Amino acid sequence: MKLIIQIPCYNEEEMLPVTVKSIPRQIEGIDRVEILVINDGSDDATAHVAKELGVNYIVNFPKNLGLARAFDAGLKACVKFGADIIVNLDADNQYCADDIPRLIKPVLENKADIVIGARPIEKIKHFSPLKKILQKFGSYVMKKISGADILDAPSGFRAFSRHAAMRTNIFDNYTYTMESIIQAQRKGLSIVNVPVRVNEEDMRPSRLIKNNLQYIVRSAKTMVRFFIIYHPFRFFATLSSIFFVFGFGVGLRFLYFYFLGDGAGHIQSVILCGLLITAGFQTALLAIIADLMGINRKLIEDVQVKVQNVTLEVNNSLKRY
Q1: Is residue 294 within 8 Å of residue 226, measured between CB atoms?
Q2: What's CA 64's distance to the chain center, in Å?
Q3: What is the pLDDT of residues 248-265, one digit of tens each?
Q4: Is 87 helix (H, G, I), strand (E, B) or coil?
């Protein structure tokens, strides 16, 4: 049983040694613990420090592509290198690495495909009261959108089975936390929450969240985008219904005045009615097309998983020989 711990990094030459040294090397039920660092186009000595620390694998980006891209590349690399379980650990030493055995236990026992480390939000000292409210509200909204029982949606401390990692494809450039939850729920992957601890000391400020307003705006945009991507028919069908309702409403208004003998003064309502109903029909067509595209994406992802499985089997056969 092989565990690979992936650490996405961007200019982490100072914190990376602290994070790597905190990782337990002996875990019950795991035969090998390896570390993969994703160097997201750092312009400091992150890559050199990773080599000096003796991590097992390093994925280098020529330029900074963002946390989501680094996370996705890490998952694909871990699968390629034969990981049975993958743990994503932030490089800022926010999460207590001693909780990794607790995090992977549900995966080891085949009770979950994905495990999310739920932080004690109320007890985190460096979180402002507003940030604590936003974190909880974000988790609540994500729970409603995805249908999954999530306690800490923004948490980056996660464990993935190989099966879950192969079925995860991140499209967003900002963050992977919310998108991976929606994908997992849509693909029938089981998610479990596990309470984890955080390190209050030796932490640097978050680079992903510059201020609370930016966090709210970007999170809202991300959630709307994910809803359109993963629920396209529902989104466009709802939009189409709105156009139809307003269109028929305007049309009924014109008929009301028409039968009262005042129809000539409300020709604008006929034009508006026609425009709204036309928009409704066009949006309904978009709903059908988007739904077909969603089905096609699922088929492509199934093919991708099968190709990855075949590649792993071939690699394992070559190793035996």
Answers
A1: no
A2: 19
A3: 999 998 888 888 877 677
A4: strand
